[in-house]
Amino acid sequence: MDTSSPTALLKVVLPNVPTVLRGAFWYSLGFSPTSKKWDLRTELIVTFIRSLLNSPKPSPISKQQYQSTKDPGIKGPMWISKVTVPAPEESNVQEVLVDAIEALKVGGESYTLPEIKPVEVEWTGYRANVDSNRARPDLSEEQHYDKLMQGVTSD
Questions:
Q1: What is the CA radius of gyration of the chain?
Q2: What is the pLDDT of residues 44-88, one digit of tens each?
Q3: Rounded to the nearest 5°, which phi and psi values hold at 83?
Q4: Residue 81: which of 119, 135, 129, 124 has the closest Cα?
Q5: % helix / strand / coil in the chain, to the nearest 5?
């Protein structure tokens, strides 16, 4: 269900208006099975969602999966700075990990020793005075981090 344009949104909402109006009518007369338990708003929302889910022409699962995996990208009032911290060349991190595992081990459990890999990190922060559709500025990751830190107002 593509709702990125007003036309597509109308194609989704308009066919369900009669169902929602019927639900509101039954609710107001007290004939709805949930009229004593729900308020009108809840009744309308549930009725609308049910009409969407009980569509006579459901979309294929592959299309639903494709739509759910779309990456909208970074936009809106947030700073994002992505960094990859390389794995240490000479470090006793693995020795400390093995010592901790051995100290907590009970009995003869076996395990696979993990390898040390680079760590991907993402710093996020609020970006003031920006609307929700503005795209991410074309800056280096270091500049993004500097801008993010300039906007910090507390520890």
A1: 26
A2: 999 999 888 887 777 888 988 888 888 888 889 999 999 999 988
A3: -140, 145
A4: 124
A5: 45, 10, 45
What does the DSSP 8-state code read for residue 135?
A: B
To the nearest whole number, what is the mean pLDDT of the chain? 87
pTM metric for this prediction:
0.49
Question: Is residue 150 within 8 Å of residue 123, measured between CB atoms?
Answer: no
How far is it, in rounded angstroms, from Cα 129 to Cα 77?
7
Three-point CA angle 47, 64, 120, nearest 5° = 115
Tokens at residue 45, please? 């929302």
With both helix axes pointing from N to C terminus, report the angle between 40-53 and 17-29 in degrees, rounded to the nearest 10.
140
Looking at per-residue pLDDT, the higher value among 108 and 129 belongs to 129
- pLDDT band at residue 1, thresholds of 50, 70 and 90? low
